[in-house]
Fold GntR family transcriptional regulator.
Amino acid sequence: MTQKPNPLSSIMVDGPIPAHLARSVIEETLRSAILDGRIPCGAALRQQDLADLFGVSRMPVREALRQLEAQALLNVIAHKGAVVAPLVQGDAVETYALRILLESEALRLSIPLLQDADIEEATRYINELESERDYSEIGRLNRLFHMTLYSRAPNRRLLRLVEDGLNEEERFLRFNLEAMGLGELSQDDHRALLRAAQERDVEQSVTLLTHHLNRAVEVITLYLNSPEALARRS
């Protein structure tokens, strides 16, 4: 009988963790492993296994898992515990509809407060995206570009919700961009959005963002309904 691989075997812990840092270290370590696929979708994360791995009690483990659940990276399932959440699937339309609402509001709040350094940083991410071929990096740079434009929004809870949605998209892009046949990605949408933000044109920025996200959901929905995507999920 073949033994299932341990999803935690790829995680290395260097020495004891100070008690006051335990929750944040566990959270960030698991978050990185989920985002880069070392801990796959559907993997169950048991509190005692994690406590043994990190050399801590179960209390900071519970707190870290609760934070990851709030970020939509984990689901808590009866009799199974914390399970790594699936990638964007058939609810892509609903997911992006919610993202449009949240990100539009974050953009409205942020644009009047953007600084020159923010514009320069966002420009750098676009330039890197145009030459990047590594699918993991593309997802990360896309998230960083958008968060830079939203970062001055004073509503921090809104920003956390926005970043949760971008994290979900990053995971999806990381594992599906190649299969979607999207190698060299045009940055025209991003450049137009950045120009409007630089000119402090809030309404035009929101219009461009909405168009950009609607285009994304069309491409993702088309892919999810393709025979190749259905075969990968079966």
The chain has a mean pLDDT of 86. DSSP finds ten helices and three strands in the chain. The first strand starts at residue 44 and ends at 45. The radius of gyration is 19 Å.
